[in-house]
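If you are new to this repository, start here. Below is one unmodified record pulled from the training split, so you can see the exact layout before writing a loader.
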Amino acid sequence: MFRFGNAWDDLLAPEYDKPYYQKLRAFLKEEYLHSGVRVFPPMEDLFAAFRHTDYHDVKAVILGQDPYHEYGQAHGLCFSVRKGVEIPPSLLNIYKELHAELGFTPPSHGELTAWADRGVLLLNSVLTVREGAAGSHRNRGWEQFTDRAIELLNDRDRPVVFFLWGSYARAKKELITNPRHLVLECAHPSPLSASRGFFGCGHFRAANDFLGDRAIDWTLEET
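And here is the target side for that same chain:
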């Protein structure tokens, strides 16, 4: 069993004994250890989003679909890649929107760990994927697990901003029923759809206005 070292441990512990999670665990053991194919992210990074952003520290959630599926990209935080890896097109568009809204200076890398450490839960709905096969681990149980995390955040009294970009993420809106929270919806930042509502969405400014003195520092250092 993975441990996050924060409040998520106790909150998500009931999931581990449920049949869906037991099946998921057996599937992942086979995929990582015996399938002969690469699975991303590396096992040690699988729950990075939960490790970096404690339940009580979450200010905002950016929801992705599943991890990047090419070698060396995924490290457990949605939209993020390690320093030294080429910045993916969707993240470049996120940087462009941040610059347009807040004067953000884009770094030369795509690692978003600093955001996670400042309270942005960078959560994919599906946490694993086979190399070169987008969506290959969907409908194996991850969705139930991450939906539970969203439900737990919905239960919080302290407000959270939910960034739902694209139709897949927007479908999760039904889990967010607490009027204390802010839900921001628009097109996905992918080059295929960014011009149809992501650019000019104003979400980063709206989130910080909503959070007030808890506003997120979106800056990213070069080193």
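Two things worth knowing about this chain: The first helix runs from residue 8 to 12. The radius of gyration is 17 Å.
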